[in-house]
Amino acid sequence: MYQVEIRQGSRIEKYSVPSGYSLFRLLKEKGFYMDSLCGGKGFCGKCKVRIVQGDISKGRCSPDEAGHLSFVERKEGIRLACRVQINEDLAVEVPEGIQRDAAILVEGKGDVVLNPRVVKRYVELSNPSLDDQASDVDRIEEVLGAPGRLRPAALRGLPETLRAHDFKVTAVFFDQDIIAVEGGDTSETKYGVAVDIGTTTMVGFLIDLTTGQQLDVYSAINPQRQYGADVITRTDFTLENEDGLALLSKLVRDEINNMLRAFCQKWAIRSDMIYHMTVVGNTIMMHLFAGLPVRNIAVSPFIPVIARSFELEPWQVGIDMCPSGRITILPMVAGYVGADTIADILASGMAERDELALLIDIGTNGEIALGNRKEIITCSTAAGPAFEGAHIRYGMGGVKGAISRVRISKHGIEYDTIGGQPARGICGSGIVDVVAQMIKAGIMDTTGRIKSAQEVKADLPDALVSRVIELDGKPALLIASREEGALDDIYICQKDVREVQLAKAAIASGIHILMKEMGVRHEDIQKVYLAGGFGNYIDYDHAADIGLIPSQLRSKVIAIGNAAGAGAKMALLSKEYMEMAECIRNKTRYVELSSHPDFQNVFVDFLPF
Amino acid sequence: MYQVEIRQGSRIEKYSVPSGYSLFRLLKEKGFYMDSLCGGKGFCGKCKVRIVQGDISKGRCSPDEAGHLSFVERKEGIRLACRVQINEDLAVEVPEGIQRDAAILVEGKGDVVLNPRVVKRYVELSNPSLDDQASDVDRIEEVLGAPGRLRPAALRGLPETLRAHDFKVTAVFFDQDIIAVEGGDTSETKYGVAVDIGTTTMVGFLIDLTTGQQLDVYSAINPQRQYGADVITRTDFTLENEDGLALLSKLVRDEINNMLRAFCQKWAIRSDMIYHMTVVGNTIMMHLFAGLPVRNIAVSPFIPVIARSFELEPWQVGIDMCPSGRITILPMVAGYVGADTIADILASGMAERDELALLIDIGTNGEIALGNRKEIITCSTAAGPAFEGAHIRYGMGGVKGAISRVRISKHGIEYDTIGGQPARGICGSGIVDVVAQMIKAGIMDTTGRIKSAQEVKADLPDALVSRVIELDGKPALLIASREEGALDDIYICQKDVREVQLAKAAIASGIHILMKEMGVRHEDIQKVYLAGGFGNYIDYDHAADIGLIPSQLRSKVIAIGNAAGAGAKMALLSKEYMEMAECIRNKTRYVELSSHPDFQNVFVDFLPF
C-alpha cells in the first residue's frame, strides 16, 4: 500500500492505495473532479495533475502523454492522471479547473450545493384491510404528504410493486411529482445524465445524484455529421428532405440511447433509474433533438421556435430512461447563441461576479459573451469549424495521431502528435501554432500570403526553405513528411491560412463589437474564459499572435474546458444552478453581428495578422 | 311561421319557427336542456315536455311515443319533444329535470356558471425582425402574460402557424398551460366531451364550450360486454388472459374514438378542437379505461389503484383529440363506488343542501348514497343487472319492442312496449310492474313463490289462471304470447322472481344500513333521487310495493335520469363543479356491506316482498 496525498483547492485528503492503482480512478472515486472527455483512455489530455512529491515528479512521462504536455509542463511535474499508476508514495495537486463545478461535485464539503430535482423517500405503508380500504395511491400519497402527486405513468405497476414488497417502497419525486414507486428501499440509488450535443461531438456524463459524483463519461461523433459538418448544411437537409427533420432528430436521440445503454451496462444500472437528463448545445442542436423545425433560424431574422428552457418527457423524444422522468433543455439566448453558451457562462461563474469577463467558446461556431453579474451581451461569429480541423486540407479533430504542437525554428520544423503516434493530420492547436510561427519566421506576410521558395530563399535557413513547396500552383509549407515517419505528407496550404484568417477575424470582430456595445476597454476586462476543448490545447501566445485573442488580454486567459458540459452537470446537480441558468438568460442580450453597422468594416480591419 | 312559447323554470322565451320544424331541435338549439340518450330518435323516451297550448295537447300521440307515456301523462299533454313537429302555435313546458344541469346549459342567464378549463385568446403579434429576434414562443408568451406556458407538443407546428397567419393566432389555454396555437381567430370554437362509461352502455355528450350548449349525444353498448356482462367477469378476464387488460382498455378507448369521429363528422369539427374530456363510470370501468390493473378491486379488501381524480393526456390512452388536451377522470370513493356515483351526487345537488337526501343509482350494480352538505355515506350493493333485463329469462334492455309497462287486472294482462312495436322481451320497468302486480293479484306469495295454476284456480279470474302455466316444471306467468301479436311467448318464471328478490333485498339492505350508520329515520330523509335510466321508467308505487324503495319514502322520489352523465358534463362546463366533485369525495365515507356485521341478517329480512 502506498500513501497518496491529494490537494484540490482547500481540500486535502490522504489515502492508502494498493500498488499499481490508477491515479485517475482514485481521484474519480474520491470525488475529486477532473474534466475528462475520454474517460481515462489517454486521448483527451484533460486530466492534468501536478505530481508534487514522488519519483515520477521528475519530468518523465509516458509516450501517450507527450502530445498533451508542453516541455514546461513536464518540467513542473504535470502528468495525465489517467496515465499514472501509483507505485510509490505520492503528493498530487489537482487543479481546480472549473472551480464551481469542482465544488459541487465534491461531497460532504462546506461548499457543496448538491440539490437535485430528483429526491427519493422510503416509506413503510400499512397494509390494506376491510377497515382501511384506501386506494393504493391514497395510501402512499397520504404518508408522503399533500404536495406529492403520483404521475399517471407510475400507476400501472404500482399495485404489484406494493404487494411484492409488503407495502415497503421508495417514492421518487421530481420536484413535487412522484414519478415512480420502487419496491423496497432504493433511496440511495438515483442517477442523472448531462448531455452536451455539439455539432461535431456529443458528450454525456453519468452522475450519481445521491453523492453528486460523476461516474462516467461517454463521447461520440454526432451522427448527424454525415448530413453536414455545420448547422446550416443540416438545416438545409431538413428543408430539402421531407423526413429530414425526423431523421436528424432520430440520429441524435439514438446516439443518446446508445450512451444510456453504455452507462447502464457498465454500471449495472436499470435505465429506469435514470430520472433526469439535462441537455445543452447550440440552438439548432436543441431544436433538432426536440424535433422542432429549424427553417427560420437559418434565414434572416434568424428566429428559433423556442429559446427559453423547456422540459420534455422521455416518451416525447423516445429516450430510454425512467418513463416519467424529465429531460430539461437549458435556456438559449437566440438562434445562434444556444444553451451551450448559457452553460458556459454558468460554469465560468462570470454571471455572479462584479468583475468584467469575456468568454469565448470556439467550437464549430464561435460564440462570445461579455459581461458580469449586472448584464451580459453575446454574439455569434461565423467562425466556421477551422479550429476543429474542418475545411483544412490536412485538418483533423484532436484525436490520436493529430499534430497538436508545432515549433518552427532555424533548425526546421518539430511537432508533437496526440498519443505520440505517427502524424496523420493536424488539429486546431497545431494549426494556430503553424500560422503564428509562419509569420514570425517570415514564411508568410501579415496579409496571410505564403511566400514562395524563391522569395524566402535569401532570408531563411535551408532547413525551412526546403519545406516551402508548391501545391496546386500556390506556395505551401510541409509540416510532416512520410520520409520522417508521418503517415502522410502533411502541408499547410494557402487556402488553409485563409480559413484561419476568416475565422480569427470573425471572432476578433465579435469581441471588438461587444466591447464597443458595452463601452469597455481591454483593461476593464479582468478575465478571458476560453471554453471548449480547443481552449485547453492551444498556445495562448500563438493565439494572441494571430489575433484570435486580443493581445492585450493574453495574460488573462483561463481555459475552462468543456464548460458547456460542466454547466449541464451543474443544472443537473442543483436546482439553484438551473435557476441561475434562467437568470443568465434574463440578463443576457444578443447582438446580431450580421446586421451590425460596424461589422463589415471591423471584419476587414481584423483580416490581416 | 308559427309562434312557440317555451317555459323552463323561470326562463320563458318566444320563437317564430317554420312549419314542420322539430320541437326537439328547437329546444336544443335554444339551449333548453333535456336529457336525451338517443339524440332525438324516439328510442329513449327521455325528452318529455308538456304541451300547454295547441291542438296536439289533446292527448293524441304517435305510436312511437305510446310505450314511453302513461295514460295520465298523455291526458296531461305530455309528449316526447323529438316526436313533435310544429304545425300550429304552441306553448310548451320543459321540465327542469336535473335542474342544476339545466341551469348551466342555458346561456346568458343569471344562474349560468359556464367556466370551462379551456379558454381561448386571440392575439395579434408583431412580426419578427433583426431588431426583434424573440423566439416564436417568447413572442407569444410575452403577449399572453406570465402564467401561460406553451406545452412542448404544441411547439412543432408553431412556426408555420404563425407565419401562415401573419402572426395573428389564437392561443388555447388549459388552466395555465397553452395547449395549442391556432391560426387566425378561432376563439369562438372550442369543444369538450363528457363520457359516462357504463358497464353496459356508454354515453357521450358533445358540448360547445363557448356557449355551454350540448350539441349531440352518442350512445353505444360497451364493447367490453362480449367479455362479460358484469365487472367481476371482466376482471376475471384480465386475470386469466395475459393481454386481457390491454384488450378491454382498447375496446373502450376505440369506442370513445368512434364517438369522437361521429361527433366530428356530424358537426364538421376537427378532432384537435376537442380539448377536454371528462369521464365518469364505476371504479373498474375507470381503471380499465386508464389501463390500470383491477385485480385487487375484485378480491377482499377490494383496493383500487387510484380513487382520487386524475388526468391523462390523450396520447396515454390513444384518444383522438387535441394532442395536448386533457382527459379528466372524476374522483371515485372506493372499489365499488365510482366516479359515476360522485357525478350522481354532484348532479343531484344533495351535497350542497342541508336537507338529508338518499340517492339510488340502479345500473348494472346498485350504488346508494345518503347525506347532505355535511357528510355523505355510500355503499355498493351486489344488486346485479336484473333491472337491466340481464339474468331474466326474457329480459332485455330498454330498447324498441321491450315490454316497459304491465297491467294485471281481472281482465287479464295488458302491456306497452317501447316504440309501440311487437313485444320481444321485457325490460326493467316491466319486470318491476309484473312482480308487484303478481303479489297484488295473488299469483305469488310474499316469499316470492309463484303459485301453481291449481292453487290460484279458485281465487283468480280465468283470464289470469289461463296465463299461469308451467315452465321447466315450475310455475310461470305468461305476459305476452305470439297468438296476441308478440314476437315470442314471454314469461316471467320463478328464477326471474328470485333474481328480482335478491336485487331488491340487496338495495333495501344497503339503504337500511346506511340509515342505521347515520342514525336517521325515514322521516328525516327529504328527497330520494333515483339515478340511471331505469329510474326514469319505473312505476314508483310498484317499486315501493316490492320493497325496492322504502314505502315510507315513495312520495319523495325524484327521477334524475342519467345523473352520472350530467355530473360529467357539469365538471366539463365549470371548474367549480370539478372542485365540488373533489369536495364530495372528501366528505364521502364508504361503508363496506360485505363485512358489515348487520348485513346478513338485514338481507334475509328484506328478502320477502
Structure, described:
- The structure is a homodimer of 609-residue chains.
- With 609 residues, chain A is α/β, with parallel strands linked by helices.
- Chain A has 5 domains: 2-96, Beta-grasp domain (Ubiquitin-like (UB roll), Roll), CATH 3.10.20.30; 118-183, Ubiquitin-like (UB roll); 191-329, Domain of unknown function (DUF4445) (Nucleotidyltransferase, domain 5); 350-385 and 500-606, Nucleotidyltransferase, domain 5 (2-Layer Sandwich), CATH 3.30.420; 394-491, no CATH class.
- Chain A has 21 helices and 29 strands.
- Chain A has a 6-stranded mixed beta sheet, with helices on both faces. A 6-stranded mixed beta sheet of chain A has the order 28-27-18-19-20-29, sandwiched between helices. Chain A has a 5-stranded mixed beta sheet with strand order 2-1-7-4-5.
- The longest helix of chain A has 25 residues, at 494-518.
Strand count, sense and barrel status of the largest sheet of chain A are: 6 strands, mixed
Number of E strands of chain A: 29
- The helix/strand class of chain A is alpha/beta
Q: How far from one another are the termini of chain A?
A: 55 Å
Kindly report the spatial arrangement of strands forming the biggest sheet of chain A. Answer: 14-13-12-15-17-16
Query: How would the global form of chain A be characterised?
Result: globular
What is the fold-level CATH name, i.e. the topology of the largest domain in chain A? Nucleotidyltransferase, domain 5
Of all chain pairs, the largest interface belongs to: A-B, 47 and 47 residues
Radius of gyration of chain A: 26 Å
CATH class of the largest domain in chain A: Alpha Beta
- Percent in helix of chain A: 25-40%
Look at the structure and give the mean pLDDT of chain A. Answer: 89
Roughly what fraction of the amino acids of chain A lie in strands?
25-35%
Q: What is the total domain count of chain A?
A: 5
Oligomer: homodimer
CATH architecture of the largest domain in chain A: 2-Layer Sandwich
The parts of chain A where pLDDT drops under 50 for at least 5 residues are 97-112
Helical run tally of chain A: 21
